[in-house]
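Good morning N.,

You mentioned wanting to compare the apo and holo forms, so I went ahead and generated the holo version with zinc ion. This is what I fed in:
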Amino acid sequence: MSSDCIFCKIARGEIPSRKVYEDEEILAFHDIHPWAPVHFLMVPKAHIASLAHVSEVHQPLLGRMLAMAPKLALQEGCQPYPQGGHRVVINTGAHGGQEVQHLHIHVMGGPRPWLKG
Ligand code: 5GP
Ligand code: ZN
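and this is what came out, ligand included:
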């Protein structure tokens, strides 16, 4: 846990969020500035700064997060594959467009046009 990290604060419940899913290791919540009709973020509750900081010990956690993304996307109103579907994005580092330094998976969907992406 990192004391001044905004997503750690959200994971601890110190900053409110619109929750999509929560278990011991993972929190999913709606993005505060959605680019698409459905746009939520999935984060590990433990502080991992970025995808570039992931190691072998994180593989089960990341596998679980990725496998969960399509299920949560449907739950949040994305249409099923293949006519619907969704986009999964992990911005990493400055050139990757990462603004919050706590690993997060963007899940976006719903009818186009979108604001971005
Ligand atoms: P990044 O550019 O790092 O991949 O994306 C960070 C995302 O976090 C942005 O889409 C931004 O809107 C979202 N975000 C930043 N601060 C907050 C917050 O306090 N609450 C929520 N729900 N989303 C946030
Ligand atoms: Zn953090």
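The mean pLDDT is 97.

Happy to go through it together on a call whenever suits you.

Best,
F.
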